[in-house]
Write a structure and sequence with these properties.
Blueprint: H1 9-18, H2 22-33, H3 36-53, H4 63-78, H5 88-91, H6 116-119, H7 124-130, H8 136-142, H9 147-158, H10 163-170, H11 174-191, H12 204-219, H13 222-226, E1 229-236, E2 243-245, H14 247-255, E3 265-268, E4 277-283, E5 289-301, E6 304-311, H15 314-320, E7 327-328
Length: 338
């Protein structure tokens, strides 16, 4: 904390009490806002407000609930406007694989990935219980809800707060909370895609699938790559509002508009949104030097890949994921490494 404040030694001591809640609050704010950067900002602002108000906190609620109340208010303030974040497939139909790239859209249009390290605590049980609700599809679906309904759905169905706890956090009646939850469920039933199998790092077959994807992509072997893809696979590349559907269309896109990715390298990350993720570097003008291209997040269903998500805002995302600004490879690894 860098905020300055005079007095209140209890408030100073409270800073250490806030920190164990940072990751779960960040995950909550991310579900609300759809942006890892905005989620971090929201939690920092919530901690600042909590620090300033700590002398008046009298323990009538748990510290955790109190921090959720403050974080919720910060998120609702940030959501005071009509703009909702989305995925390319939420905005239009699929493009043809040889369509030229459209102009990029601003970053506030898009659902962004979040590093697992920002969203999950040390308890594997908590990770397993909540990772499905950090999937890109779920976060995008939640954005269809009005802000208060969004908060209620997440608190009741993800965080398992009771109706009374949720009502206290939002300064509403329990009856109003339950009514809003029913409306939120009805909306989600129309906008949320069917559940896929997700990713289990302990599943050897899924780990092999991810490894096979890396080998096929780095070899730019489209036959091997398409064999790993589900028939309705979707490829997207925010900040471009195009997306490609189907294995053969993906292969055609990769060998035409996307051919500059030939010779890429994938640096595996601990994960994003509970899914396999990579720092994707592609060949640059200097031999043996690869440049940032995307944070690539895979969506899986059993032993097939259902989503190829290439987030191209590397200037912001690579530092967030702790990635280097370039990757040097031996020219013996593939000549142009590209």
């Amino acid at each position: 904390m860098t905020t300055t404040r005079t007095g209140g030694s209890g408030a100073d001591a409270a800073v250490q009490q806030f920190e164990p809640h940072r990751r779960e609050l960040c995950a909550y704010a991310y579900r609300m806002l759809g942006s890892s950067f905005e989620a971090e900002d929201a939690v920092q602002e919530a901690f600042t407000r909590a620090w300033k108000a700590y002398d008046s906190f009298e323990g009538r609620a748990s510290l955790r609930s109190w921090l959720y109340k403050i974080t919720t208010n910060v998120c609702l303030d940030m959501l005071d406007g009509p703009q909702r974040r989305a995925r390319p497939m939420d905005l239009n139909g699929p493009s043809t694989p040889d369509s030229p790239l459209p102009p990029p859209q601003p970053d506030y249009v898009w659902i962004e990935p979040i590093p697992d390290a920002l969203a999950f605590g040390a308890d594997p049980a908590d990770h397993a219980a909540t990772k499905d609700t950090l999937r890109l599809a779920f976060v995008a679906a939640v954005q269809h809800l009005p802000a208060t309904q969004r908060a209620i759905l997440i608190m009741r169905e993800v965080l398992r707060f009771s109706a009374n706890e949720t009502a206290d956090i939002l300064t509403m009646s329990p009856a109003s909370v339950n009514s809003a939850l029913q409306r939120a469920r009805a909306t989600m039933s129309t906008v949320q895609p069917a559940e896929s199998g997700g990713y289990d790092a302990a599943d050897e077959r899924q780990r092999a699938l991810v490894s096979d994807f890396v080998q096929a992509f780095e070899a730019y072997d489209m036959d091997r790559l398409t064999a790993l893809l589900k028939q309705d696979v979707a490829l997207s590349m925010p900040p471009f509002d195009l997306w490609i559907s189907g294995p053969q269309n993906v292969a055609r896109f990769m060998t035409t508009v996307g051919s500059q990715c030939r010779g890429s390298r994938m640096v595996q990350l601990p994960g994003a949104n509970g899914l396999p993720a990579f720092g994707h570097y592609k060949p640059g003008p200097e031999p043996g030097v690869l440049e940032p291209w995307s944070i690539t997040v895979l969506e899986l269903d059993g032993e097939v890949i259902t989503g190829l998500n290439f987030f191209l805002d590397t200037e912001r995302l690579f530092p967030l994921f702790g990635l280097e600004p370039q990757l040097r490879v031996s020219t013996s690894e593939g000549g142009a490494a590209g």
